[in-house]
Amino acid sequence: MSMVEDQIEARGIESSSVLAAMAAVPRHRFVQDDWQGSAYRDHPLPIGYGQTISQPYIVALMTEALDVAPGDRVLEIGTGSGYQAAVLAEMGLEVYTIEIIPELAARAEATLRALGYAVKAGTSDGYFGWLEEAPFDGIIVTAAPDHLPQPLLGQLAPGGVMVIPVGPIGAVQTLWRFSVADDGAVLAESLGAVAFVPFTRAEE
Questions:
Q1: Domain of 33, in residue numbers
Q2: 189 falls in which pLDDT band (50, 70, 90)?
Q3: Which residues are catalytic?
């Protein structure tokens, strides 16, 4: 698929499992009718309610940075269209996903179910993660808070990784990879500048 070859592999994504999942998941099924012609193009697309489906390369970059293997348990914060959850499920991961906007959550869950992806979905404030199902081998956050949510960091298993954009809207945001060492130490690595929609909280 040209999307994978030209937009993702050509930019340095090397994980064979990520590349295969990006080629296998039908991205157009997660895009609204008005945007079908742009489903595989190199930019994010609106999905309603002020939210977007991320640029394909960013989905691949964040997924590769998780460094997870089949059978690992991954929590996604910000289900949105359901596309990122589908990519994770396609890789053989045990996927949990949280969306705060009920209409998006329902639509994403229906799409995932129609495509045969067994994803456990919830509707709540993702800032607090999913404590009942923790710990997770990976956590991926697809909207940008202005600070690192400590409840999420606390739900990572030893050796776990969280990939999250952090920064105020309208200013430079940074994509971070936080990893938890076996002794509990947290290591932080910047993956570069990004632009995400804001992280929505319940009180907002």
A1: 2-194
A2: very high
A3: 54
